[in-house]
Amino acid sequence: MDLERALRISVAGMAAQSTRLRVVAENLANRDSTGEAPGADPYRRRTVTFSNQLDRAMGVETVSVSRVGTAGGDFPRRYEPGHPAADADGYVKTPNVDGFVEVMDMREAQRSYSANLAVLETTRAMLTRAIEALR
Hints:
Radius of gyration: 22 Å
Structural class: alpha+beta
Oligomer: single chain
Shape: elongated
Helix content: 40-55%
Number of strands: 4
Number of domains: 1
């Protein structure tokens, strides 16, 4: 049934975007988390990678989270000589989390989640009308 396929695709999309929202929330919560010892690495931004997955039972491709990894790159440094994690020159490594980028990722994930939810609600309404028509 095509409506059941639409439901499965929407649910898979919602699950993937939910994971993405959790990772973004974690990144935002840790954007000020520095190392505890001089020269220690701070929190490293996490990223979500998606992939298509074939649902053989339904014969459709759905989206899934293939992995949650970490972003590469250098850590920004901030001059703060009194900080416990400051190196010999007084610089502290700060997380490679950009609040603006995280908010944009959050909005994109929220919109994708909402779009999948709208498809789910529309499909459910169509199923309900079909059942009512059969009564």
